Amino acid sequence: MTDLHLWLIPLVPFAGFLVNGLLGRRLPKALVTTVALVASLIPLIQVAVIVTKIGSLTLPHIEKFSRPWIGAGAFHADFSFQLDQLALVMLCVVTGVGFLIHIYSVGYMAGEEGYWRFFAYMNLFLFFMLTLVLAENFLLMFVGWEGVGLASYLLIGFWYTRDSAVNAGKKAFIVNRIGDVGFILAMFLLIGHFGTLSFGDVFSQIAAHPAWQGGFLTAIGLLLFLGAAGKSAQIPLYVWLPDAMEGPTPVSALIHAATMVTAGVYMVARAHVIFDRSPYALGVVAIIGVATALFAATIGMVQTDIKRVLAYSTISQLGYMFLGCGVAAYSAGIFHLVTHAFFKALLFLAAGSVIHALGGEQDMRAMGGLRNKIPITFWTMTAAVLAISGCPPLAGFVSKDEILYQAFLSSKLLWAVGLLTAGLTSFYMFRLWYLTFFGESRVQPAEADHGAAVHARSDTKLVLEAEQNAPHVHESPWVMLWPLIILAILSVIGGWIGWPAGLGGTNWFAHFLEPAVKSVHMTYEQTTVAMATSTVGNPNPSPTGDKQIELILALVSTLVAFLGWLAAHVLYYARPELPARLASRLHALYALLRNKYWVDELYGALIVAPILFVGRWILGVLIDRGLIDGGTLTAGYTAQGLGALVARIQSGNIRSYAGWLALFAAVLLAVSWFGWTTHFLLR
Amino acid sequence: MLNDYILTAIIFLPAVGALVVAFLPRQGRVIQGFTLLVTLITFILSLHLPAHFDYARHGFQFEENRPWISSPAIRYHLGVDGLSLWLVLLATFLAPIGVLVSWRAIETRTKEFYFLFLLQQTAMIGIFVALDLFLYYGFWELSLVPMAILIAMFGPNRGRQAALKFFLYTFLPSALFLVAILWLYAKTNTFDFVQLQNLLTSGTAFSPQALWWVSLAFLVAFAVKVPVFPLHGWLSDTIHEAPTAMAMVVAGKLGLYSIFRFNLGLFPAQSRAIAPVMIVLAVVGLLYGALVALAQTDMKRLVAWSILSNLSFCTLGIFCFAIAGLDGAVFQTLNEGLTGGALLVLVSLLYERYGTYDMSLYGGLAAKLPMLATLFVITSLALIGLPLFNGFVGEFLVLSGSFQVHPGWIAAATSGVILSASYMLWMVQRIFYGKQSSLIVNRPAFDLNIREHITLWPMAVLMLVMGLLSPYWIKGIQSSVMQFSSGITRSSVIAPQPSRVSYVVGEVSATRGPSSHKKPSRGAQ
User: Model confidence at A239, in pLDDT bands (50, 70, 90)?
Assistant: First the structure.
């Protein structure tokens, strides 16, 4: 077997992290840039080489270090890496988008004091993300899983003097840890049932036992999905992602849109053998996914911060991916993951370019009319908006349609909710587009009082710029524009690799992925019947629809996307006075959405506050001071009353302490030398 | 042959050093320098142990066994096995670090401090290697004395009260413990651990009720020293008042080692019977410590509570009677000594610079002391069990092992990882992030000096190395665990817990046969 040196792929960025992290403070900026870019370029080249050789490889290809990482009893976990079609797709996304965003960051972060720190963290992120993707067992995957969380924590809190940023980083880490508990417990169950955490071993054992349906596999699947819900910001653990926008915009693009947040989808697809055996778990995945998609889209409709709109949009799109996985169309979910990585990274980077142009402004109410001032940003962003809204033949249309089609085959209700969400998506994206680029310019000169508001929100460096040369709107440098252009091209054509059969294509992407994610699941009804008649082990392949339905569905969703655009056009372009009237007419609904259903407040009041109260007052004061400490003191005073021994100690004379203790030691020695005590006591 | 007296050398070198310290002049840093030298030599000598330890062999190595007193029959019996091997190393490794961290922190009564410090060092190592119960008890008491004196002498606010508390908590159970040892001697005429183990695990000459009381006397004395909830009343005050070098070693390893060695070694059936209680106490202590830590404003007390929480992992691992759990418990004991110690050092460095432990007075320190902040964050990550750090390996082994036996309780314990992340990240935030507080702005900033770098980096690097190459440590630990597991099957009064895989002690031994000491296969190697 050819040696691919897979371990180098994550390790090169790690080397970049070490160099910049340890020495970056003293290195010249150009060198920091070079190290960071090279460290992210080498994995990309390596992946490209693998892609060219793909025909001659036997997949999955596994590399393993001979020494185990953790071993105890019969259990062991290794540093072992695996390359299969699924991992390769992820590798392309992570290294490709990752490298582009590194380049963009060179321009975006140019004036930052912590420039070296930023790139060190970015490389660290790549290291963990690539470990996650290449891992051959659950435990090593968990290394990457927690590691990307660490990188995310560090990068969200990059401007660590700002409380909001630090709070957001902490929130992200802790909410993710809640999901991680699910992941950990799932691993414990896997160890208990399979004695191993290796993907290959676990999945082949499941394959060898067709009678295993539901039961413990449902438990494992649900626990894994809890982990996925944390990392991929699904209900009920999505709350950290909007706050994560406190980080620099390239971070939002790379970590909180294109790569890290999709790790949950990747993990579900990776563990699809488990989910295939549990219709319950799959059902939960699909329902949570579609519910999150709708829920987040409704919030996204009324947000005014450009990055927050995109954050809720990300949550919503991730819901789509889980919907795809939940109906066992894993390749559709992964396909949307890929196209989403293109257009959502582009949206964030373009938004960053807008923010850059406006000197730090993120509020869309203070934008408008920018299309001629920053034309390249405008046109690339237009491509992304069209793609995410599902305009044919752009990437988002192809992948979203595939998911909706698969959902339709599984359940009409899931499809209907997904379709509604598609309409909302189109609406809020065009709303963003019109508010930012069309209409009268609402850009305000950076006055002192307004400057304070900007201070609270946006990048420190940009604020400084804004204060110096007030409202000079300018296009970004080329180092930032090239990544936009490349991503715009990908957002347009990226979907063509999976052009559906119903529209005259071959769906090459699904066929390519098939060996890795081939689903042999049974529907809930089928399982029930099979269990009842004990004829399990004869699973149906995914249902096959016909091309006509696919075509009709594509037309319907295009129509819905068009309606979304129309609504946005009327409200934010043709009749811009309407939204305010609507908001006051539907005051309660508007307040509900505007305040994000008060979920943060709810969690604060129902979970955080009670935990702090219990820790501080019930346990800290009542039990510990009252019972445990009080008990000792009572015992102490009793002893004091009874014996002169303790009274001597209480006297507080240090010499008497020392003397007393020396005496005690001397007695002990005497006992051991003469041993008379023991004789006396025991004879 | 060095092997024959290496343990005596390691134990008594610090004691000899202490005697020399008593005669050294107080001027300059002669005493500090000399103590550092002694601890370094001890550490280097102790490296001999892992270098020449035979992992394939079971039982005690580097043994010294001489009669000391003929009547009562007290022997000078020392030995090291996989359980104590790394604990000795931990003690000798932390000693030079303790000297370095005290370098400027202890400016008055240095002679008394270093004298007692070295004496305590002797006692600690003695505890780990003594195989005669009487000898062990001598070291045990000797370890308490310098600690109590030093807390009283150097406690910044309420040293005497803390010392009294420590005293009451640790000496009273020790008295019961002594009675139990003497009772055993009266019944068996020996203090020797190996002989006692053979008599107790094979013989039926003892009334079960009496054995129960004896094992409880042992357990309570040790559990206080760990401490196990609810016997932790002394911990917070002691750690708060003790000099850092002492606070680093006061909790954890001595008690946990002793539980493993004596309770599991001598009274396996009783330990097994009481295990459900201990597991509940451990889980409660784990969550309790974490919740109270969350509410602290004093950073040293926060560290103390986190130590209680983390040590509960070890207790949990010991009493789950699963191989992975036992491995993990010992590994986690090492982690706790290392990571908890590093955290106490870091906190003391902050105290030296700003004179307070109150986190509300701190803020925004990261910009002023970037190196200190970096090391603080690294240590915090190790403590909350981030993968690739040592803490993760320990927690994972303990929890995954015990989960197979007590899924419900362990699921509750696992939620502790959320709480630990919460209190540590919140502490980091309050000290290092946000706007600079007036305290920070008004004091000159001194980032780590060379001495402090030398103090901290070995610990930080070791945290990472132990997280990456855990089998190097585990293989020694596991040799003892397997030996113990065969012991427990021989005397198993209670049937082993059912389990699906050979992950639980009883079952592995049952399938391998009680006399088998084979190391488990590690799959494709």
Answer: very high
d(CA B94, CA B329): 19
Rounded Cα gap, residues A393 and A515, in angstroms = 27
Q: What is the ipTM of this complex?
A: 0.89
Query: Residue A163: its chain B contacts at CB < 8 A?
Result: 433-435
A666 touching chain B per CB within 8 A: no
pLDDT of A677 above 90: no
With beta carbons under 8 A apart, name residues in chain B contacting A609.
none
- SS3 string of A39-105? HHHHHHHHHHHHHHCHHHCCCCEEEEEEEEEEEECCEEEEEEEEECHHHHHHHHHHHHHHHHHHHHH
pTM of the model: 0.89
- CA A439 → CA A368, A434, A576, B373, B458, distances in Å? 6, 7, 9, 48, 62
Rounded to a whole number of angstroms, the distance from the CA of B104 to the nearest CA of chain A is 22
Query: Cα separation of B365 and B373, whole Å?
Result: 7
Is residue A664 packed enough to be buried (19+ CB in 10 Å), middle (13-18) or exposed (0-12)? middle
Describe chain B by its helix, strand, coil percentages, rounded to 5.
75, 5, 20
Instruction: List the domain boundaries for chain B.
Output: 279-485
Amino acid at A678: T
CA atoms in the 13 A half-sphere facing the CB of A26 = 3
Residues of B in contact with A187 (CB under 8 A): 400
Two tokens, residue A669: 């020695």
User: How does DSSP assign B218-259, residue by residue?
Assistant: HHHHHHHHTTPTTS-TTHHHHHHHS-HHHHHHHSSHHHHHHI
Query: Percent of chain B beyond pLDDT 70?
Result: 92
What distances in angstroms separate CA B99 from CA A635, B24, B36, B121, B155, one per listed residue? 35, 16, 6, 11, 17
Q: Provide the Cα torsion B192, B194, B200, B202; round to 10°.
A: -140
**Looking at CA atoms only, how far is residue A255 from chain B in angstroms?**
19
Question: Which residue among A181, A661, A678 places its CB closest to the CB of B414?
Answer: A181
DSSP symbols for A583-626: HHHTHHHHHHHHTGGGHHHHHIIIIIHHHHHIIIIIIIIIIIII
Three-state SS at B451: helix
The H or E element that residue A273 is part of is: helix A272-276
More confident residue, B122 or A575: B122
Contact, B139 vs B74, CB < 8 A?
Answer: no
The pairing of beta strand B61-69 with beta strand A75-83: unpaired
Angle made by CA atoms B145, B147, B153, in degrees to the nearest 5? 105
Both tokens of residue A622? 């009542």
Write down the pLDDT at residue B487: 60
Q: Does B397 sit within 8 Å of A72, measured CB to CB?
A: yes
Name, in order, each residue with C-beta under 8 angstroms of A235's C-beta and a sequence gap of 6 or more: A229, A288, A291, A292, A295
Q: Which two three-digit tokens encode residue A152? A: 């995310």
Distance CA A338, CA A348 (A): 16
Contact B92, B120 (CB under 8 A): no
Instruction: Report d(CA A643, CA A663) in Å as an integer.
Output: 17
Taking all residues of chain A, what is their mean pLDDT, rounded to a whole number? 84
Give yes or no for A667 touching B (CB within 8 A): no
| Chain B contact present for A586, CB below 8 A | no
Tell the burial category of B105 from Cβ atoms under 10 Å away from its Cβ (0-12, 13-18, 19+).
middle
Query: Cβ separation of A173 and B407 shorter than 8 Å?
Result: no
Q: Which residues does residue B74 pair with via DSSP β-bridges, in sequence order?
A: B69
DSSP B266-291: H-HHHHHHHHHHHHHHHHHHHHHHHH
Cross-chain CB nearest to B403 (options A160, A188, A672):
A188
Interface test with B, best of A171, A657, A681 (most B CBs within 10 A): A657
* Cβ proximity of A600 and A589 under 8 Å: no
Q: How far is A406 from chain B (nearest CA, A)?
A: 36
